[in-house]
Write a structure and sequence with these properties.
Distance between the termini: 13 Å
Low-confidence stretches: none
Structural class: mainly beta
Order of helices and strands: EEEEEEEEEEEEEEEEEEEEH
Shape: globular
Strand content: 35-45%
Number of helices: 1
Largest sheet: 12 strands, parallel
Radius of gyration: 15 Å
Number of strands: 20
Mean pLDDT: 97
Helix content: 10-25%
Length: 169
Amino acid sequence: MIKNFGRKKPKIDPSAFVSENAYVIGDVSIGRNSSIWPGAVLRADRFRIQIGCHCSIQDNCVIHAGIADVMIGNNVTVGHGSVIHCARIGNNVLIGMNTTLGIFAEIGDDCMIGAHSMVKDHFKIPPRSLVVGVPARIKRTVTRKEIERIIAGANFYVDLSRDFKKQGL
């Protein structure tokens, strides 16, 4: 379901896939070849949500721009059931399943956030960081091979979403 909120209207690139069972409302921008899967909620009623190109917002994620803008770069995969309130996610980032990103948190480019992690409010994660835990802590630097896997995963979801669009799903 794609809805305006007052004068705030979603802007969705024609190449993007938005499941009919997702809820996209307000000042949401979805970039080229991105995908929004069933049960995802993108609610930009007060501030804006900007999603870059080749991003996958998977099933049952919640992204809410309630007190500030949420800016998501390119080649970002947000795993199933994650809750996103952060200010920024850089390019080439994997957010593991059931992860929570607190308000005003910032995730640098080329990062991996482990499944079930809780990134605290205002936490700034530098580029190329592997972060895990509750609360989330930086464990090590992400390798070049891991960054390539993040990008390959993003491309996998671009292809999958094209198949869904072709079948009218």
